[in-house]
Amino acid sequence: MNEKKDLLAYIREGRQMTQREMLNLIIQLSIPSILAQISTILMFFIDAAMVGHLGAKEAASIGLVESASWLFAGLTSACSMGFSVQVAHAIGASDFKRARRILRQAVTCCLVFSLVIVIIAVSIHRSLPYWLGGGEDIATNASLYFLIFSCAAPLFQIESLCGSMLKCAGNMKVPSILNVVMCGLDVTFNYLFIFILGMGVPGAALGTSVAVFITTLLMAYFLFWRSDMLRLFGKKAEGIQNQLYKFKPTGDIVRTALKIGAPMSLQHLLMNSAQLVSTMIVAPLGTVALAAHSLGITVESLCYMPGFGIAEAATTLIGQSIGAGQRALTRSLAWLSASLGIVVMTVMGILMYIFAYELMGLMTSVEEIILIGGECLRIEAFAEPMFAAAIVCNGIFVGAGDTLKPAIMSLASMWGVRLTLAALLAGTYGLPGVWTAMAIELTFRGIIFLIRLSRFNKARRDE
User: Fold this and answer.
1) Prediction pTM value
2) Helix runs in 169-286, H state only
3) pLDDT at 410 over 80
4) H/E element holding 322?
5) Ordered DSSP codes for 102-138
């Protein structure tokens, strides 16, 4: 812990770092984040497995609205990052007063944003399953799951904000531990609501919401009362009476947050809209295909979560090194982070290929779903190295506050490559055709992101 703090201090102090020290720092920051990401996915893996064992219709009802649910969750994350990146830059410049000022305003803006999401979700929850091509047999459960999940948006928002703020300050340990705690709570509450109380699909959403609520309280405590750099209340912090007015948003911080967060929000919106279109392409293939698609995505997420963990570490490191004005260090950290992500996710892809059918067997006992889902996972395994490149490079660009062009690239890849190919291949090859389109698109996206990373580093060198 002390070594990690010392290495992070090197960035703020402008001290030189060896390649080994940089790699150690990336790994030290990545491991807690990877564990947190894996625990989060395990949470949804177990949830999906619980519901999957209720039957194909129950699994399909969640699969139908899953993309829409995560659309709203992704929007709350993008809103948080618009402020968190500014905090990373301020900490890199050792301007802790400005970092706390940004945090206060982030709380206000993010809460307002999440309440808007709740209003939208409540207004569309009844119609959404039918818009997505679902039938009467799964529409009621799908609608209730989406409504409960979306009404928890303020909880997801504050949990995301507190976690991202702590991470951008270099504290990966606390958010990671709390995410593991949330996983345990989620399994407990989901088992209670789904099976013991017999609530089925709605119980899955309610159990998750309760787990997030408890985790949010703990995350807020560690940020607002315990963080050395960002605490707002408690010992050595200003009295709450002197702070309340400081939560009022100001133009400079909000404009920068919009510059960073708006492209990310638009990207989440259109990427998840693309996922919804993908679901609409899969839905006519039948309930089995839809269930296999949903459960397969949950299984695959175990493979790519390490990439997101490394990306989060890269966001912190790039943000602080740019704030400190260390251009050479920024370039080195960027390439090392991307390389580490590719190596880790290549190994994960190999494991997913080998154990594809066994992993699907953990999710459901329906043999037909296992067979088609395992085939799709083996197709997707070949895309994991370049998927890693896309994930980590995006984290690097976020840390630099460069979000517009990467968002455009992701959207062009998703809509221009994946959906076009999926629509063409679904009719002939069924669900494996859709997943082949996905694998081709992820490989293409990784390649173009690596090209942009090389240009990003060249620009830093020429500054």
Assistant:
1) 0.77
2) 173-191, 201-221, 240-243, 251-282
3) yes
4) helix 287-323
5) HHHHHHHHHHHHHHHHHHHHHHHTTTHHHHTT--HHH
